[in-house]
Amino acid sequence: MKNIANILSLIGILLLTSCNNDPSLQKYFVDHQEDNDFIAVDVPSSLLDKKHIELDTEEIEALESIKKVNFLALPLTDKTKAKFDTESATIHKILSSDTYETLMRFGSNGTKAVLKYQGEENDIDEVIVFATDQKRGLALVRVLGDNMKPEKIVKLMESVDKGKIDLEAFKKIAGAIDMD
Question: pTM for the complete prediction?
Fold first, then answer.
């Protein structure tokens, strides 16, 4: 009986120590969905009308590898200034974990952004964009998908730049945030 108690105690300790209490990006999104200071939008890839877009095979494959886009923003106001600093630090901490790899950093005129990914280099499951602006606030975007290929995602982004994909839904989100 003593051995059973010792084994159960050992299993309990192992279970408690194996649980990861580190904050995750998914938990961060869930925790802030109902916060009235934030703007939260989940956009399924089906929102993009693929039938009326002229894309080449690689662009179509990239678009079809995207399942959903999660968008979370905190517009900067007098009321949210302290929260902006706290939330920016929290997001930086989450994104600085070994879980995410940095693709690039960029910024100018008070705006800073980082592009990160999760998954294998040639098989990305999640792309994250985190941007802060000292006048407008912060934005956090998660692009979730299966087997996203970096080179195809880049090509898809180039097609967005060329105007081949109408991002009207995303423009409405940006307009609602008033981050212009």
Answer: 0.73
